[in-house]
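Chapter review: from sequence to fold.
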Amino acid sequence: MAAVHHGSVAASELAALGLRPGDVLDFSVNTNPLGPAPSVLQAVRETDWSRYPGDDEAPLRRRLAKRNGVTPEQVVLGNGSAELMWLIALAALQAGDTAGVVGPTFGEYARAAQVVGATVLEVAQPEQAPATRVLFVCNPNNPTGEYRSQPEIERLLDAQPDRLLVLDEAYACFVAGHWASPALVQAHANLVVLRSMTKDHALPGLRLGYLLAAPDVASAVERVRPPWSVNAGALRAGLAALEPAATAHVDRARAVVAESRQLLTAGLVELGFTVRPSAANFILVEVGDGARFRRALLPHGVVVRDCASFGLPAHVRIACRPPTDCQRLLDAVAMARL
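The token string follows.
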């Protein structure tokens, strides 16, 4: 089974160009443009690494439950939301089942289903999906940035009550005025909401995510989760991320994302490219040849995400970094005469 390509740039690729990781602006990773909240980093530094991490799981589940208006039994922690996708597949699918994926989108949904022997059906619109055991919907979608409304999701839940709808909200915290999905968890036993806390605080190397679901669904996922899958530093970071200082940090990042998204969109359109409207902290740009576009920018110290692995070889995905970085990207595109 082929591995999923996740983009970014390898140190070996940069070394061939005489560059180091610190020499480039990485627009291929969609995380908080302000970096980690200082209070969250401090919590990681103060972690006691001599203990097993289990004692900190219950406090974080309780805090997340209170934040989202659910019970602690409806919260499952994971080593990033990617691990939770695999655990959902392990708990809910078996060989011979069919899993639906609304694409083009993140490749790990399909891979998780294939690992347990399920057949994967990709559809362009969720309404096109036939009866499946599980349906994965990324909202806002990676890489298109499309954001589906609450009524759209409710119609999907009502259309097939026996189908588990997995709503991945890894980037929802960066959407201005995003609607609150946890309320639907209480009303629909067939909904699972996925969240990635390390996207919010630019800590993808730490790995921390969680899901919200009906108690029986959450219990099924918890039973197949490996022991201590979330490390002690991630648990401490998660608790710190729920404090007011860290919440305010994410609020500031949301404003930066809105400003940078507008700057990038206007600048790239002026340079002759087509930019798809996005509600997320990244944009999808049609450039003709995504791989060539990416290669041309590397010598200028700029990395973007070639979208061939999404089935979109003519496109690149560009994350919303701070405005000064975004202007540097626009200047690099102009200099590269792309």
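Two observations follow directly from the output. The first strand starts at residue 25 and ends at 26. The chain has two domains: 11-30+247-335, 38-242.
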